[in-house]
């Protein structure tokens, strides 16, 4: 037993009836607790509480007009094209690019592409208050806020080059979430853009 | 002055409440714990701020390791069994019932279709070896022999729908979602091949499995 016997002596009365020795009804729990804690520790350490995190990606339906054609309905001034290049470089241009000077280079840091996206967002005038109002109205009407085209002006075209890696792709999608860009599409790089980038390098 | 007698107190500590709590916690952990299924390849996923939870059921996972090896897995033994039975029939693989059973017990695989009969003859130790798991051939083309992912995606979805039809708890032909779990270093070209294959099967919605990175928060501007 884990306890120290503190009772005083045997304590049976003299001359009394002979009784069987009273056995304690206390059960020593210590070994059980030991085992329980061992198991508990094991399960606590091996358990994976959270399922893996994930992001959802919706691609444009192929058979229909692809994203590039859709982008042409959008004003060129509302478009930002982000080309994911090799070696963690981002080439980007606003609107349309015709000469190598139109294309600029940046990186994935919060000072890089994020600033550019946020700046572009302000430029195209995504008015936060108006947007909030439209969202609440849409929610009241039971519609999905993402369907209201009016409030999402900025369109980001993401064009990963073959040399870009998966991390780059996830990073840029993440950046879309961080900057709350609602309209973006992953599109293939056009040969013209590749030419411009080559000239740029 | 008489000596003050200090009452002798028992050193026994009642462990019952503690053991109660410990048992409660233990029960909780036993019931909630999920052991990670064995995977033939290790994948170092990139991190993102996305907090979408991957569904546990009706999910096909396409994993890509840093060498670009593609691994396909489908949840549920019965779904895998239906899938392999169909593939076996349509592609004349000549698998025995035993091999079909063996396949349906594997969470996933990374073997070209033509090597599958030989792969299923191996013992479980040899199955784990890297040389026996060359990966599912993929390609940017939409040719089934070169881009075998097309086969598995197609049959995986059919099998999931069929199983969900049979399942008395579901009873609806729910198809599987597609999760892509790729290594950070995988070139985009590989991902493009996978996405092309998926899009040709009219699947335009994917779940990209990432690690959680709490350092970046969405900005409110």
Number of H- or I-type helical stretches of chain A? 6
Low-confidence stretches of chain A: 9-13
Distance between the termini of chain A: 80 Å
Order of helices and strands of chain B: HEEEEHHEHHHEHE
Q: How large a portion of the residues of chain B is in β-strands, by DSSP E?
A: 5-15%
From the alpha carbons, calculate the radius of gyration of chain A and give it in angstroms: 34 Å
Let me know the number of strands of chain A: 6
- Report the average pLDDT across residues of chain A: 74
List how many beta strands of chain B DSSP finds. 7
- Morphology call of chain A: elongated
Q: How would you portray this structure in words?
A:
The complex is a heterodimer of chains A (201) and B (221). Chain A is α/β, with parallel strands linked by helices and 201 residues long. Chain A has helices at residues 30-46, 67-73, 113-123, 128-140, 166-178, 191-200, and strands at 53-58, 79-84, 90-94, 104-106, 155-160, 184-186. Chain A has 6 helices and 6 strands. A 5-stranded mixed β-sheet of chain A has the order 4-3-2-5-6, with helices on both faces. In chain A, a hairpin with a 5-residue loop joins strand 2 and strand 3 (90-94). The longest helix of chain A has 17 residues, at 30-46. By secondary structure, chain B is an alpha/beta fold. Chain B contains 7 helices and 7 strands, in the order H-E-E-E-E-H-H-E-H-H-H-E-H-E. Chain B has a 6-stranded mixed β-sheet with strand order 1-7-6-3-4-5. In chain B, helix 2 (77-91) crosses helix 3 and helix 2 crosses helix 6 (149-166). The relative contact order of chain B is 0.18. At the A-B interface, helix 1, strand 1, helix 3 and helix 5 of A face helix 1, strand 1, strand 2, strand 6 and helix 7 of B.
What secondary-structure arrangement, pairings included, does this model have?
The complex is a heterodimer of chains A (201) and B (221).
Chain A: H1 30-46, E1 53-58, H2 67-73, E2 79-84, E3 90-94, E4 104-106, H3 113-123, H4 128-140, E5 155-160, H5 166-178, E6 184-186, H6 191-200
Parallel strand pairs in A: 2-5, 5-6
Antiparallel strand pairs in A: 2-3, 3-4
Chain B: H1 16-32, E1 47-48, E2 52-53, E3 59-64, E4 70-74, H2 77-91, H3 97-105, E5 108-109, H4 116-119, H5 124-128, H6 149-166, E6 177-182, H7 188-200, E7 205-212
Parallel strand pairs in B: 1-7, 3-6, 6-7
Antiparallel strand pairs in B: 3-4, 4-5
